[in-house]
């Protein structure tokens, strides 16, 4: 009780101190306060975390200090708004945030947020004032663009100097892109105004979630608090479906704009909604009035549009080809179940020349390990599942007589553990796949119990730094069984198990929702006894490393669990790759040594690493123009090669999918009498686009979508090399029966 009284007294003093310095305009801003139920949600979350977490830690003064530091960094990760004086002002509560949670008094974290909002408004107001002057680009200024690891700025004078350089850099980028001073001022003033507009849309639910995540992630990096809306979006991501109309939306200049229309969805089938249309109003059903949504947060608009299957939603639309004062149209749509096919498994076939022979390599891209848990629990025979989709694709690849299969898990951040186990089962007969150890040191083995394989031929797995969790379980199991070649760069290193724990079970009021915890409850171990934690999966054949382990991956976290090992599981290797891997690696090294695309890639990686290490950008116009000219010259050298109509002798050739041929033919029809540019030309233009100084929502929607298409069409150097490696494997296995009998002892006849 005494602690709580002291905390309240401290807060009152801090509020008075802060209020004395608040400008009149800033004081008029909305002050956010905790919602009813949030303090109780925080208490119940703390009780669950201290008792059930794999790395249970008490909520005490030591934890309070960690929460304090992480909360300030969460609000201001680049240290552009708070000064050290702001942190010092709240230093008295540094060890008392545990008391705030236990005492159900969240006034302090909300007061810190309100100070952040005040500072945010002040900094942006100063930036807009700077636009009335003109920077001097002849000076030898420089700007540190990545400030995550920088010290907090000590004084307001130093903060103003930092913002002077930031605005100067924004101005110079636009100047180098060809904008005049008037256009630059208009662009930047609107940009900074949009910053303020977006920040004002943050709610007390957002603030509570930021604070609770500062607590949860102070225990361990992969523990999170999910507010009610975040929880709903997490469920949608796992099942890859939702009930709605089938539009991907985004905010542009306070408007909600249609970015994509999902084929086969209610919106797509209606023909009444087009990319670029603006949604001005939404009526959630036939009887509800139209609600104007201009200036709304995108997630609020989405929540209004979503609804039960077979219900009706009405939209007030400003068509893309109408002016600001153009005629609106009213569209009624019946909501249906929408499948997010973009995140589903997909296949392609690439053909590679190997001497006089041609090798057909089937590639299956899997962006996430998804499963519709609810549909599965209800007994739905056709529930959405990564394993089911991959099994179907493998069946199709068999019919198309591919020689090898590559599972592309790049940037697959994981998902369902059950799916990782079942997917592994498609490539092994049966046996253990992964081990788990909980906080009681109890070890459980997750196994594939279904005999037989969906694919018994040679295979490989392509990974990168973005391959995490379930991706690492699958890749590690394939590697430990000797079942396939792991290609790429070391993976993320996330070897922990999370579960969702609903906090609503503690609520005394059905109308008050406490949200959920995504909480670490166990650690993964490979069947060989090691863990993927921290170190990740090391590929058998390494490709150039694109990421930075200091800023991305498990090793970048200051409180990650350490690497350790346990007793190996009992398993029988499916193959032996020790003899073939050096041969594949030798062929790989010889090929990339003379591959111009790889040389370009190496140049790009070296340049990025140098820029990352320097972490400084010149604000001198002459220096920047010289750098820009060098970049454009380098791009032009590549353009002739990339635009060549004659593919390289070793370039893999994409085998067209007959099912896609009609769609591609339709999409390739000339628009307005002008022939559409070839995917290769579009890819080159996208790849060689120089810095235009703009942010995403400042470009036209058409330009953004064209750039995305170009990026997808661009040559994937790493995928092509992985395909070459698997083609080499096929050639070696076909010419050496003894080696084939070791790599594929259950399917020696690789010529079948």
Structure notes:
Among the domains are: 36-219, no CATH class; 241-339, Pdz3 Domain; 342-577, 2-enoyl-CoA Hydratase, Chain A, domain 1 (Alpha-Beta Complex). It is built from 25 helices and 22 strands. With 752 residues, the chain is α+β, with helices and mostly antiparallel strands. The chain is globular. Helix content is 43%, strand content 16%. The strands form 5 sheets. A 7-stranded mixed β-sheet has the order 20-17-16-13-12-11-22, sandwiched between helices. Strands 4, 5, 6, 7, 8 and 9 form a 6-stranded antiparallel β-sheet that branches. Strands 2, 14, 15, 18 and 19 form a 5-stranded antiparallel β-sheet that branches.
Question: How would you concisely characterize the structure shown here?
Answer:
With 752 residues, this protein is of the alpha+beta class.
* Total DSSP E strands: 22
Specify the number of helices: 25
Q: Which consecutive residue ranges, at least 5 long each, have pLDDT under 50?
A: 16-28, 662-687
Shape: globular
Overall CATH architecture of the domain at 342-577: Alpha-Beta Complex
**Physical arrangement of strands within the biggest beta sheet:** 20-17-16-13-12-11-22
Looking at this structure, what is the CATH superfamily of the domain at 342-577? 2-enoyl-CoA Hydratase, Chain A, domain 1
Radius of gyration: 28 Å
Report the top-level CATH class of the domain at 342-577. Answer: Alpha Beta
If you consult CATH, what is the topology of the domain at 342-577? 2-enoyl-CoA Hydratase, Chain A, domain 1
- Overall SS class: alpha+beta
What fraction of residues sit in β-strands?
15-25%
Q: How is the biggest beta sheet arranged?
A: 7 strands, mixed
Percent of residues in helical segments? 40-55%
- Please report the distance between the alpha carbons of the first and last residues: 79 Å
Domain PDZ: 235-306
Family: Belongs to the peptidase S41A family.
Coiled coil: 616-643
InterPro entries: ClpP/crotonase-like_dom_sf (IPR029045), PDZ (IPR001478), PDZ_sf (IPR036034), Peptidase_S41A (IPR004447), Tail-specific_protease (IPR005151), Tail_Prtase_C (IPR020992), TSP_N (IPR040573)
């Amino acid at each position: 009780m005494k602690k709580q009284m002291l905390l309240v007294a401290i807060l009152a003093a801090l509020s008075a101190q802060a209020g004395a310095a608040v400008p009149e305009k800033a004081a008029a801003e909305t002050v956010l306060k905790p919602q009813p139920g949030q303090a109780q949600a925080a208490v119940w979350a703390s009780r669950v975390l201290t008792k059930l977490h794999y790395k249970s830690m008490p909520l005490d003064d030591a934890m309070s200090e960690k929460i304090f530091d992480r909360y300030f960094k969460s609000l201001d990760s680049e240290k552009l708004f708070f000064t050290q004086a702001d942190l010092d002002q709240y230093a008295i509560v540094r060890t008392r945030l545990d008391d705030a949670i236990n005492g159900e008094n969240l006034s302090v974290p909300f007061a810190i947020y309100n100070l952040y909002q005040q500072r945010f408004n002040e900094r942006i107001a100063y930036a807009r004032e700077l636009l009335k002057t003109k920077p001097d680009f002849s000076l030898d200024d420089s700007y540190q663009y990545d400030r995550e690891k920088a010290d907090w700025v000590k004084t307001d004078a130093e903060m103003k100097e930092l913002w002077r350089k930031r605005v100067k850099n924004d101005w110079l980028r636009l100047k180098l892109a060809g904008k005049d001073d008037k256009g630059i001022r208009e662009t930047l003033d609107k940009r900074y105004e949009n910053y303020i507009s977006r920040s004002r849309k943050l709610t007390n639910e957002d603030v509570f979630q930021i604070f609770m995540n500062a607590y949860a992630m102070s225990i361990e990096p992969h523990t999170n608090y999910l507010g009610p809306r975040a929880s709903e979006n997490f469920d949608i991501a796992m099942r890859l479906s939702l009930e709605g109309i089938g539009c991907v939306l985004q905010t542009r200049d306070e408007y909600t704009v249609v970015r994509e229309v999902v084929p086969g969805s209610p919106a797509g089938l209606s023909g009444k909604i087009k990319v670029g249309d603006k949604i001005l109003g939404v009526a959630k059903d036939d009887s509800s009035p139209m609600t104007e949504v201009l200036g709304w947060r995108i997630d609020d608009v989405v929540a209004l549009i979503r609804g039960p299957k077979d219900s009706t939603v009405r939209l007030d639309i400003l068509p893309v080809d109408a002016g600001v004062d153009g005629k609106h149209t009213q569209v009624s749509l019946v909501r249906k179940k929408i499948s997010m096919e973009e995140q589903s498994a997909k296949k392609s076939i690439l053909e590679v020349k190997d001497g006089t022979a041609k090798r057909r390599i089937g590639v299956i891209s899997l962006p996430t390990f998804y499963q519709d848990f609810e549909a599965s629990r209800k007994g739905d025979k056709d529930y959405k599942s990564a394993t089911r989709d991959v099994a179907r694709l493998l069946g199709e690849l068999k019919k198309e007589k591919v020689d090898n299969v590559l599972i592309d898990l790049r940037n697959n951040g994981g998902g369902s553990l059950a799916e990782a186990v079942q997917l592994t089962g498609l490539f092994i007969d049966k046996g253990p796949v992964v081990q788990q150890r909980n906080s009681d040191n109890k070890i459980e083995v997750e196994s594939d119990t279904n005999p037989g394989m969906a694919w018994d031929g040679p295979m490989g797995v392509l990974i990168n730094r973005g391959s995490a969790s379930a991706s690492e379980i699958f890749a590690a199991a394939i590697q430990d069984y000797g079942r396939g070649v792991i290609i790429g760069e070391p993976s993320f290193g996330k070897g922990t198990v999370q579960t969702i724990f609903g906090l609503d079970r503690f609520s005394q009021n059905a109308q008050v929702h406490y949200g959920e915890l995504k909480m670490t409850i166990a650690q993964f171990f490979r069947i060989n006894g090691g863990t993927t934690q921290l170190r990740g999966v090391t590929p058998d054949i390494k490709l150039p490393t694109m990421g930075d382990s200091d800023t991305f991956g498990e090793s970048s976290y200051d409180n990650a669990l350490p690497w350790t090992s346990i007793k190996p599981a009992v398993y029988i290797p499916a193959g032996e790759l020790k003899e073939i891997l050096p041969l594949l690696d030798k062929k790989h090294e010889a090929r990339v040594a003379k591959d111009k695309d790889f040389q370009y890639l190496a140049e790009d990686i070296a340049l990025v690493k140098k820029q990352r290490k320097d972490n400084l950008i010149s604000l001198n116009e002459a220096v920047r123009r010289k750098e820009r000219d060098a970049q454009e010259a380098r791009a032009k050298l590549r353009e002739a090669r990339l635009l060549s109509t004659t593919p390289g002798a070793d370039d893999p050739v994409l085998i067209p999918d007959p099912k896609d041929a009609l769609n591609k033919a339709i999409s390739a029809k000339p628009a307005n009498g002008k022939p559409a540019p070839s995917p290769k030309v579009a890819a080159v233009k996208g790849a060689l686009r120089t810095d235009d100084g703009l942010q995403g929502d400042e470009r036209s929607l058409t330009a953004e979508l064209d750039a995305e298409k170009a990026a997808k069409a661009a040559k994937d150097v790493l995928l092509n090399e992985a395909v070459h490696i698997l083609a080499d494997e096929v050639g070696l296995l076909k010419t050496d029966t003894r080696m084939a009998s070791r790599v594929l002892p259950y399917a020696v006849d690789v010529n079948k």
